Amino acid sequence: MQSTLSKATLGRLPMYLQFIRGTDTEKVSAAQIARGLGLGEILVRKDLASVCAAGLPRVGYPVTVLRRDMEKALKMDGPISAVIVGAGKLGTALMEYDGFLDYGMKIAAAFDLSATAEPFFQGRVPVYSMEQLPAFCASRHVHAGILTVPAASAQNAADAMTAAGLTAILNFAPVPIRVPKNVTVHQENIALSLAYLHAMAGETKKQEKEKEYGSQRI
Amino acid sequence: MQSTLSKATLGRLPMYLQFIRGTDTEKVSAAQIARGLGLGEILVRKDLASVCAAGLPRVGYPVTVLRRDMEKALKMDGPISAVIVGAGKLGTALMEYDGFLDYGMKIAAAFDLSATAEPFFQGRVPVYSMEQLPAFCASRHVHAGILTVPAASAQNAADAMTAAGLTAILNFAPVPIRVPKNVTVHQENIALSLAYLHAMAGETKKQEKEKEYGSQRI
DNA sequence: GTATAGTCGGTATATCATTATCGATCATAC
DNA sequence: GTATGATCGATAATGATATACCGACTATAC
Q: B-chain residues within 8 Å CB-CB of A19?
């Protein structure tokens, strides 16, 4: 258990969390997780040790403790609220996506230019006008947002989000956005991810270093 | 111009490509791209040099040549066809997503358990039954697929995809999937990406190493 | 009890990625 | 034509990450 988590480790924690959420045994070992995810056993052991000190030789980690510590490391002890900016096709699909709650994430609301002062509901998610974004984020202490607007308005929307106090943005618009230093952006260009994968698939034939399940990353 | 591209470089190429597609000048320099994307100038210069040898001092790279070489490095010289497996909310949203064509990607078809022998159309994309996946991929030489089925059926769908000859899978199901060694998987758990971002946003306050535009990754 | 096998945790090494530094090159200005 | 400044490309140094190794610990078997 250490205080400074490397970026790479942090990026793998979600995978581990996803895995141990799917285990029904009492204990789990680093080797099991490594096999299950196709990662190096030592790598997993080191990652686990950096977030949880409850590991016992010959036994492994108690699942409940490991999960709690991992959620703590990922700042998921409480439920995390996020907003969606852009109620187009993709934004609407995400509103109706039911996978968030399983991971302690909750879509608190959505915001769209076309919305009026009076919110309407898309599934269970209220859709407000963009003007209401700052007040909403401030009062509900929301710091994470998903950006699903067209490329042309991405920068404007991003500016509104950072102005509203969001510090984590998942950007589905197919353009990079400019944000202040203290904001973390994850660019999610699906088309280019596919292109990257396509290129990777061609390359890895040479490398042949991949494990049992191929390469995975978040 | 070198033959072996590092994984990290490969992951940044889409960002560069995205950027230079948005430039309307004749030439572009590594420094310009670096400033535009908030990356280190040296890093960008090295990445560009590894895919394109047409850079000239004081001038930079001719945009057309750079773009061509970059698309070649990403194996995007021709249009890439991909299929969507799972015609639920997310799958349907992606079918109607119009950002693919901009990047040389084309959704050739979708496949779903509920579909019948006679395909129906969702927007411009035909939806076939799962039985037709192998024949379709073989005849159209499709090697990339997007997986948008519920968690429970993710592994079955993935097996069908690998059996059909797909070697690049973008997995939106919230579970890791097992694939043969020669297949590359990109796990896209949106909920956990948000969690990662949320944790990162808390950490980066200490690090303070981020550049002008914060951190971005694909 | 004692041996054995599986697992953890820490240290050391190797690998990979990024940044810094330097000389070479080329257009522009004078 | 020469000086100047911007840029590239290569090499070297730093830093981050992943792997290998070793000792320590604990349950099970005998």
A: 176
Is the separation of the CB atoms in A94 and A82 below 8 Å? no
> How far, CA to CA in Å, does A207 sit from each of A126, A214, B7?
48, 12, 11
Q: CA of A165 and C1' of D15: distance in angstroms?
A: 32
**SS3 of residue A187 by DSSP:** strand
Count helices and strands (H / E) in chain B: 8, 9
CA distance A122 to B146: 25
pLDDT tens by residue, A44-70: 999 999 999 999 999 999 999 999 999
Altogether, the residues listed in chain A come to a count of 218
Q: What angle do helix axes B7-21 and B63-73 make, rounded to 10 degrees? A: 140
The whole-number Å distance from A54's CA to C11's C1' is 21
Each residue's pLDDT tens digit, B123-132: 899 999 999 9
Per-residue pLDDT of chain A (218 residues; tens, 9 = 90+): 566 789 899 989 988 998 998 899 999 999 999 998 888 999 999 999 999 999 999 999 999 999 999 999 988 878 889 999 999 888 998 898 877 877 778 999 999 999 888 889 998 999 999 999 999 999 999 999 999 998 889 999 999 999 999 999 998 887 778 888 788 888 887 887 888 888 877 765 444 434 444 455 55
What are the CA-CA distances from residue B169 to residues B86, B144, B210 (Å)? 13, 6, 31
Q: How many CA atoms lie within 13 A of A39 on its CB side?
A: 23
CA dist., res. A201 & res. A191, Å (int):
15
Residue linked to tokens 């400074």: A4
> A200 - beta bridge partners?
none
Residues of A in contact with B214 (CB under 8 A): 179-185
Query: Among B218, B106, B74, B187, which residue's Cα sits nearest to residue A195?
Result: B74
